[in-house]
Design a protein that fits this description.
Elements: H1 2-14, H2 30-41, E1 54-57, E2 62-64, E3 72-78, H3 83-98, E4 104-110, H4 117-126, E5 132-135, H5 142-145
Parallel strand pairs: 3-4, 4-5
Antiparallel strand pairs: 1-2, 1-5
Length: 152
Amino acid sequence: MKKIFLAIVVLFTFFNCNNSEKKNNEVKTIESVELEDSLKENRPIDLVKAPDFSLADINGKRFDLSDFKGKYVYMDIWATWCGPCKVQIPFMKQLEEKFRDAPIHFVSISVDSEDDKPVWAKMVRENQMSGVQLFAGRENNFGYDYKIQYIP
């Protein structure tokens, strides 16, 4: 499970919507390098508690991160205007299917602007996106609290 999580973290690091030029093809964050090292050495790392949030799904039902306390949570941050995000939708569906019986919740969070909320809702329905689909928008503190600079 740890290897799969690491692979997912590295995958999302490589495919982001950052338009700036990269000096080389391999992009690693300090956090991902620390995680890789700790996994290789089989030692624990210091974890940081994720900030709680309260966001609504496509039907208006509110979800808090604390609703998933004690469970594994895979968070996918995306937007309808992000090309790589849209390319990842079928792969996300495959991942959800592969881990259908595992104790993990897939939570996809849109950071579209409030004006694009209908576009988000339409895309979720048309692509039959499963898991928990939440709308954060850009107008709240979600992106700031999670220090999101680039997506996916």
